Amino acid sequence: MTHTLEADGIQLNFGIRQILSDVYVKCETGKITGLLGRNGQGKTCLMNIILGTLNSSVNSIRFDGVVTRKISKRPDLLLYLPQFNFIPKELTVKTVLEDFGLTADDLNNRFPEFESRHDLKVKQLSGGQWRTLELYIVVKTPSLFAMLDEPFTHLNPIQIENIKQFLLEEKANKGFLITDHMYAHLLDISDNVYLLKDGRTHVAKTVNDLEELGYLRIGY
Amino acid sequence: MFVSRIRTIKLIARFYGGIFLANFLVTLSCVYLLRFAGKDAQLLLVVFFWYKVISISLIFYTAVYYKRHELYYYQNLGISKIRLILTTSVFDFFVWLIFILLQLIIYIPGYIFNLILWSVLLIHLYAYNRK
Question: Is 0.95 topped by the overall pTM?
């Protein structure tokens, strides 16, 4: 059965500045939805509104058509990877996996570089490994959807390719809403892409669409 | 269900562990002051109550500010920021209340307080060195 997560009618103002005014985003399980936008366009704000940790004057967040509030209390519905490191640095890899009910073997199979690092504290990992571990727990922990805010940050090109492959495999189990500035990677793995511009979402399918919408300049 | 509750308690206890020392020192300072107040102790209870309430508020505000990124970890495990703060602050207040009542009712000897204080400090020093 396919589940849907929809967000629309979102209005967000910071003082006199209107950040979001006409937004429609739809995610489905089994699909990866990309969200692009320049800095300050409100991508992270939109994710926080969907999560319920940021209040907006008007919004409608629906799971399977049913308006749902305070989704942050429902990790079975939605998990969130923020753009910064969120795992407490004093925890060991083993403790983190135990907290989320995940097995060490599966992590080792997927990311062999962790094989001898289960007893290390998160702060002893490299930036890329720390981010990979965060991605792994958000992606593998059972939930209908996951929102990933800049998942490719801190990752080297090989790690990015591994993560892309990982996400493509795991989309069979949940729906993803991903935002990142690495638009080429995002376009590679996304089933549909929205561009957030001037407070509105625009559907984009190709690099040319992004250029027409003023997100990037090809050839420069 | 039971396993889930145990896991939740473990996670909340872990968060509380990070701010326990500051809160506990405030509690002990109240009890010490109460001890030296002698027969006027009961008159000072209101002052100690507000001292504790204000210090809990300040400690939790600071903790939430410095650990704001880590709160997403607990949120992804189903424990909201409000739940973390409420549970741990109520628990901490009860710890304070128990110590105050013990002091008022049975008048705990000074060496017991010293023992508690040094035990807590040594445990924290040990935990800090392990980090």
Answer: no
